[in-house]
């Protein structure tokens, strides 16, 4: 099982230091969150908390995840980065393909695109994208982005996007993996049909085990049972070496963690305190040999 550091909702001036330390102590990747803006009044409840409330406010710091990946990639050499997850629905696929290809090239293919639809109508409408039929539109966006990133001349004539032959160079020298987020049956089917992996929001170990089992069924139905597939988890109730062993046994391949939260520190804790947490966490889990 791999270990990924989540840097959500922390001060953005800490990102470079955290990336350097995460690589030094043995983390595999950094998961980068996405939030476009904080709307004072939300038309929909946030889908990943019991009461629908948002876990952040208007002052919570965010940075564009693609820009963050480029900045952190410049000061590391082995650490990978992926969005967790980028909200596709409010964006344009050609502009996004240009950005993703740039980050993949600048980081030496150390970037993966975690994708979701987006939950807030405001993020669609205020960015000029339709909220209706968003799922079908995102499916077509993924098709467009993948085709462009593959290199060479590409044209596309679909229901939502239409363009003649074009090329973006240089194309990444290796395919950019796509990790599909979401807990609904529709999202799981999308992951099994077109994804290189699935990524969770906050779930219990039991929920993760059940969901991973369902995805494996769907992969088999799509003739993809033997295709390499990542299961990235944010688990809220499996701690300690025994808990991590349970996650691995359930099929989790990538454990997304926030070590300073586990030690009772806040998201805005000082950088040196977070770096100390990373070192202790790596000693306890990454270098403890429990997976041998």
TrEMBL record:
Enzyme Commission designation: 1.-.-.-
The protein's name in its UniProt record: TIGR03619 family F420-dependent LLM class oxidoreductase
A molecular function GO annotation: oxidoreductase activity
Top-level taxon of the source organism: Bacteria
Family matches, as NCBIfam families: F420_Rv2161c
Span of domain Luciferase-like: 9-227
Catalytic class of the enzyme: oxidoreductase
SUPFAM superfamilies: Bacterial luciferase-like (SSF51679)
Transmembrane segments: none
Record keywords: Oxidoreductase
InterPro entries the UniProt entry points to: F420-G6PD/mer (IPR050564), Lucif-like_OxRdtase_Rv2161c (IPR019921), Luciferase-like_dom (IPR011251), Luciferase-like_sf (IPR036661)
């Amino acid at each position: 099982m791999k270990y990924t550091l989540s840097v959500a909702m922390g001060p953005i001036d800490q990102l470079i230091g955290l990336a350097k330390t995460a690589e030094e102590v043995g983390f595999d990747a950094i998961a980068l969150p996405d939030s476009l803006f904080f709307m004072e009044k939300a038309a929909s409840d946030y889908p990943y908390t019991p009461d629908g409330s948002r876990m952040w406010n208007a002052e919570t710091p965010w940075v564009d995840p693609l820009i963050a990946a480029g900045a952190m990639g410049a000061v590391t050499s082995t650490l990978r980065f992926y969005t967790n997850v980028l909200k596709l629905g409010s964006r344009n696929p050609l502009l996004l393909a240009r950005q993703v290809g740039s980050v993949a090239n600048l980081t030496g293919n150390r970037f993966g695109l975690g994708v979701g639809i987006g939950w807030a109508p405001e993020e669609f409408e205020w960015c000029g994208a339709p909220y209706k039929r968003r799922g079908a539109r995102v499916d077509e966006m993924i098709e467009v982005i993948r085709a462009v990133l593959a290199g060479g001349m590409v044209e596309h004539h679909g229901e939502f996007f239409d363009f003649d032959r074009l090329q973006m160079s240089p194309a990444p020298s290796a395919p950019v993996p796509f990790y599909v987020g979401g807990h609904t049956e529709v999202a799981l089917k999308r992951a099994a049909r077109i994804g290189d992996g699935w990524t969770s929001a906050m779930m219990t170990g039991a929920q993760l085990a059940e969901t991973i089992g369902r995805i494996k069924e769907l992969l088999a139905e799509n003739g993809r049972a033997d295709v390499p597939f990542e299961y990235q988890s944010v688990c809220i109730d499996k701690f300690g070496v025994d808990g991590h062993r349970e996650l691995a046994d359930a099929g989790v391949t990538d454990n997304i963690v926030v070590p300073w939260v586990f030690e009772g520190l806040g998201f805005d804790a000082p950088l040196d305190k977070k770096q100390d947490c990373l070192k202790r966490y790596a000693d306890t889990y990454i270098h403890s040999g429990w997976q041998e």
